[in-house]
Amino acid sequence: MAQTGASYDYDLIVIGAGSGGVRAGRIAAGHGARVAVIEGDRPGGTCVIRGCVPKKLLMYGSAFSSDVEDARGFGWQIDQMPPHDWPALIAAKDAELNRLEAIYRSLLKNAGATLISGWAKVTGPHEVTVDGASYSAEKILVAVGGAPHIVDTTGLAAHAITSNEALDLAQFPNEILVYGSGYIALEFAGIFNGFGAKTHLVYRSDLPLRGFDEDVRAHIAVALADRGITLHSGSTIDKVTANGARKQVTLSSGATLSVDAVMAATGRRPNTAGLGLDEVGVTCGQQGEIIVDAESRSSVPSIFAIGDVTNRINLTPVAIAEGHAFADSEFGGNKRVADHKNVASAVFSQPPIASVGLTETEAKAAFESITVFTSGFRAMKNTISGRGEKTFMKLIVDRASDRVVGAHMMGPDCGEIMQGIAVAMKAGATKADFDATIGIHPTAAEEFVTMRTARP
Q1: pLDDT single digits (tens) 107-124
Q2: Of 84, 126, 340, 441, which is the active-site residue?
Q3: Is 441 in the active site?
């Protein structure tokens, strides 16, 4: 149980009621700590209100168009694409977010934590101020996440939307330019394209998804183009201007595009501006991220940080794991840290991507010798639907130990499949273990246990 300090208003003040902050707050309260959670917006944070949840709901909605196309190959007599009611989808999405926000409020209330509405500023090692009122705590946990970052390009900030606004557009654009090539850019490009918008994807590099495995990057570029997204690789935006209701975009190549909307998906930054961290001595990095140790402690011993604001692994389940470990360690008498090794992730592009472990480039740097297994094939559904899109799978093996150190996939259901692969890799599975496993037939997943021939 927590050792409470009566000289403070609370034992723990959490700034930010996102997934990580709420988990930390309610677990700490469950250990007996007096907890306050401060939130200036809606409880739920980026994932529930402005990220994972609404984005995937829109992704589900947009994917029905490809299902309609595929259905024709299976004998369904569909003469034309049925119309879509965008406002109805946004209303349904908002209703679901309201439900989830209520759940987050209940989680804190039922745990005995106090929810304080307002924007917080850290005014001392043990003090937080909200709208002129000061609160003290033995420990402060910063869990404010990140926010979209728009690069400094003429007219871009004035005329572009970000992922925040893209989730609430009152009117669906007939033509849109998405600027960027990270997971947010690809996911929204797929959403807009799936709903019928003429979609342009503009990015600086030769392939999208910098930092992902090179084979996956090459395969997703082909798949996006095959689905009708126009790729402008090796390009940046020089200028954006308004042209009536449309936006005129000049690219570095000299080409110009006229579109209904421009979406900037050029990265996210830790949301630390205005928190007062510099004034109290908290060390932050170049992008504003709070520098923490393995126990999530900042340079000020009483101030901790978890989640995207630390810019470690910016995934909701990681923030939750960090928040839970923090609460157990500081208030539950169970010292532990979140494990950041072999964290699986998915990109809900269309087609989706999932991976766990090392890329081939990372594996070559980490091990003396590796063996790589790849497989590319048309999914069974595509053989009748007529879609030429291929599924791609890849396993990377440390030759000395035979352990599988990287797994990557592009294709339907890859996120669901990769979760099981992640469990195996966490347990230290070898390629021999994969080979000895009998597959489930007919599925795409069985390919992971039937790849026998190494790539030359």
Answers
A1: 999 999 999 999 999 999
A2: 441
A3: yes
